[in-house]
Structure formats: structure tokens, C-alpha cells
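ugh ok fine here u go
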Amino acid sequence: MEKATKKSSLKPKFQKAKVKIASTLSGKPAKNLKIIAVTGNTGKDTVANFIHKILLAHKTPAALITSPTDSPLTTFALHRYLAKSLKSGATHVVIEAPASVLKKHVFYQLPIHMSVLTNTAPNDAPNSKALDTVTHKTILFKSSPHFIILNRDDPHYDRFAAFSAKTASATYGRHKDAGTHVYRSKLYKKGTETSLSHNSTTFDVATFVVGEEAIAYMAAAAAAAAALGVPIDTIIDGIASYEPTT
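structure:
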């Protein structure tokens, strides 16, 4: 095991101190917002956009914060965005939370209302990197958010299921035990359609997002929205209203 140096041991403490400074300078906006954080190996941006659109369809004042690969979210930027969101009248903020940002403690002590997991790297991925990113993703679930939404089909599901939610945990996927169950799907050149079952109610959702992956992304957003008490008709409308830019 590599021996920790003075410099490496101080770095996390410095990063966490930055969070406190950034929060204070921004007026501590997070305490007045319901923050929904979405993490995963793929689909974070899409699921975050789906949830954001559903909230807007539900007439819930909501903001969206993404973290592009070429311009990852920083500590001070996050709290500035939260302050702007609060000032604009938002009550909810949906945030894309990549593992690369989480490992820098950008989300340190952030009061997470809901943590959503899209997926993790496959078990056959390079072990060291895959396990590192899984560990970074667990940061969102360790603090007992009010709601936890997990992919029941994910290879690391059991690891995330070990964390407790203050209010409720929910699952989605093709697995027979998934709370929001995917049981039928159809792929098109310009979109994707799937049938979901939730609490004995079946319904169809469709999106302009193409590809097999979109099925799980719609199920994730539907499970998250249902946990927040959003009606199924509104979930359908919200998902359908999202038009990807690429």
C-alpha cells in the first residue's frame, strides 16, 4: 500500500474547506433547495434532463445543472448555480454528478434529496478504474438521502442497495423484482418506446433519444418521478418533451 504523503493527506481537507467557503459566499442556497443528483457510467445527462422535464411538466419550479466532460463542474461553480437557481424561484435542482466530480469532494455536505444511479461499469471492465468509479459514485448514497433510485439490473446493485434512504428506496429495470419494471420495448430510427409497470399500473413512454440504452434511462426517470409523487400522465408528457441536441 502506498504511504500517504503530507501533500496527499491535506488535499481532501483543502477541497472540503473550499466547499464550505463556496457555500457561505453564495449564501448557503442548498439548504433551501431539494437537490436531485444523478450519477452513473452512462446516461447521467439524459436521465437528469428527463427528470427536469418531468418536474417542469408537473409545474414544479426546477433548475438543471450539467457537468460537461470538457468543462466539469467545480465547487464554486456548483454553489453559484445553486444560488442562481434559488434566486430564479426554483424549489428543485437536478444535477448531473459524474464520478470524476464526486471524487473531488465537490458534493461534500450537500443535502441530497434524491440520489439516482443509472449504471456502473461492467464487471469485465479494467478492475482498478471500474472499482474506483463505483466507489466515487457511492458518495451520493452514503449520506442517507431522502430517496434512493437504483438500477436493479446493474452488476453492482447489491453494493448500492446496502445504503439506506431516509424516506424510501426504489428500483427500475428488467429484473423481475424491479419496482418500475421494463417489460416491452421498441427501437426506432428517431426514438425509443417502452412499456413500464409501476404499482400494478402499466403505461407506455416514448422519447426522441435513440438506442437500447434509452429504455433504462426512461425507466430511471419514471421511477424517480413516481417516488416524488408525480402522476403517471405527467411522467409520460415530461419524458416525451425532451429533445436531445445531438
